[in-house]
Amino acid sequence: MRPRGRMWARRLAAVGCCLAVLAGCSGSGGAPGSTSADAVRAEPSGPPPASRASITALPADDTQNLPPEGPVRVSVAQGRLVSVRLADSRGGEVPGSLSADGTGWAPDGPLPLGTKFTLDAVAEDEQGQRAVQHADFSTMARAHTFVAFFTPEDGSTVGVGMPVSLRFSRPVTDRAAVERAVAVTADPPVEVAAHWFGAQRLDFRPRAYWAPGTKVAVALRLKDVQGAPGEFGTQTKDVRFTVGRPQVSTVDLDAHTLTVRAGQGGRVVRALKVSGGDPRHTTYRGVLVVSEKYRVTRMNSRTVGMGDEYDIKDVPHAMRLTDSGTFVHGNYWANPSVFGTANTSHGCIGLADAKGGTSGETPAGWLFEHTIPGDVLEVRASTGDAVPPGNGLNGWNLPWAQWVAGSALQPGASPSGTPAAGPAPSAPPSASLSASPSAPSSGSPGPVPSPSPGLPPGVPPAAPAASSPAPSPGARP
Question: What is the rounded distance in angstroms from the CA atom of residue 432 to the CA atom of residue 428?
Answer without folding.
Answer: 13
